[in-house]
Amino acid sequence: MSSIDTAAVNTLDRDVDLLRFATAGSVDDGKSTLVGRLLHDSKSVLADTLEAVRRASRDRGSEELELALLTDGLRAEREQGITIDVAYRYFTTPRRKFILADTPGHVQYTRNMVTGASTAQLVVLLVDARKGVVEQTRRHLAVAALLGVRHLVLAVNKMDLVDFDEQVFTRIAEDFARAAEALGIRDHTVIPVSALRGDNVVDASANMPWYQGPTLLEHLETVEVEGDPAEQPMRFPVQYVIRAPEYRGYAGQLASGLLRVGDEVVVAPTGLRTRIAGIDTFDGPLTEAAAPKSITIRLTDELDVGRGDLLVPVHAQPRVVRELDATVCQLAETPLRAGQRVLIKHTTRTVKAIVDEITHRLDVTTLQLQRPCEELALNDIGGVRLRVAAPLAVDDYATDRLTGSFLLIDEQDGATLAGGLVGDPLAAARS
Fold first, then answer.
1. For residue 416, what are the β-bridge partners?
2. How far apart are CA 424 and CA 285, in angstroms?
3. Residue 210, φ and ψ in degrees, nearest 5
4. Backbone torsions φ then ψ of 306, nearest 5 degrees
5. Alpha helices in 183-329 (DSSP H)
6. CATH classification of 319-430 is 2.40.30.10, yes or no?
């Protein structure tokens, strides 16, 4: 699956008890097997799919069910060149529904984790018990902290290959805790597992009586998550203007907050004020709408409002800026350099910009900031100062994920250069 199944997501979103989480780990740490085990033991695999995996396992000369084959189709997609993509799985248990974003482990695909974790409420990081916390673990940890993921799980896999040794687990847990706390991540859980055997994935392990915590699935089912977009200040990016005789509407997806007929709103960045005259949908008019509802709104005044404008409440407006400091993850092989002319895509608005300065680069091994810095290479995380040709209405990423994020685009060929976050999320996490 190369993109999100919109119908499935909308169905899941109608249930308030939904967890979006991403998985990440280094190559050969057993992530495919862990995902397969989680789906299999939670009875989330269809019978025909399971039978196909059994046949494929026998064809490979294995009498055991090779759970990693459940994700082989995803791996084949990547081998065919889909490198900036995330594979999504949907499953449910009696206690919660889940959207799982599966990201690849290769270092050159760190950008994929940015995609997968950008909407995640929780990230499951995998390490091999024989190797412990490695550089790629720290890189994924830094990305999770940068993207404001509040809940982190470290699954110490292949415990069967270290004889289920408690001391090995304790050492890895301590190393991970130091790295997480240095990045400001205080909510982290460490679980010893064997994905191959099923220990502590869905069912508790008899091989590790010294571990008294939850299994991975138990933790996913019970972790308390926050950040309901409907509880944030209202943000409505205008995506399309609908013009017809006797009708003018502004269509888009309500990114955050609650919108009611009669509300006074400000059109950012122009500052014009008006009121909501109506809220229309395919199913008929509404008196109010909550994020992430797709709607068309009508205004009481005839104003110059177009794609890229942002409707916001009078009492909670974003900052309107022509210069901004931001943190970016470089997604392109071509380095990002000071003085470079780019396009910045923020919500539905695209404007020209210049990279005034690259302020620092994050060393993912030491978690220290390197200054000065001349350029950011592929997968680098660093700080930039941008000047934009037209005003942008932005929030800090720590406050609002949507209006605090953007893309930098090559103005020559339209290629995506970097994903950006307004402000310094790592500094906000440490405070």
1. 409
2. 40
3. -75, -15
4. -140, 180
5. 216-222
6. yes
CA atoms within 13 A on the CB side of 269: 17
Residues 380-414 as b or e (16 or more Cβ within 10 Å = b)? bbbbbebebeebbbbbbbbbbbbbbbbbbbeeeee
Quote the pLDDT of residue 369. 84
CB 57 within 8 A of CB 69: yes
Q: What is the mean pLDDT of residues 348-375?
A: 88
Q: Give the CATH number of domain 6-222.
A: 3.40.50.300
Whether 30 and 196 have beta carbons less than 8 Å apart is answered as: yes
- The string of DSSP codes covering 292-338 is T-EEEEEESS-----TT-EEEETTSPPEEEEEEEEEEEE-SSSPEET
Domain 229-313 has CATH 2.40.30.10: yes
CA atoms of 136 and 115, how far apart (whole Å): 17
Whether the ω angle into residue 292 lies within 30 degrees of 0, i.e. cis, is yes
The residues with which 357 forms a beta bridge, in sequence order, are 385
CB of 194 closer than 8 Å to CB of 160: yes
Give the lowest-confidence range in 6-15, 168-177, 246-255, 303-312: 6-15
- Hey, what amino acid is at 66? E
The pTM assigned to this predicted structure is: 0.78
Compute how many other C-beta atoms are within 10 angstroms of the C-beta atom of residue 51.
11
What is the distance of C-alpha 298 from the center of its chain? 32
Q: How far is 67 from 147, CA to CA, in rounded Å?
A: 30
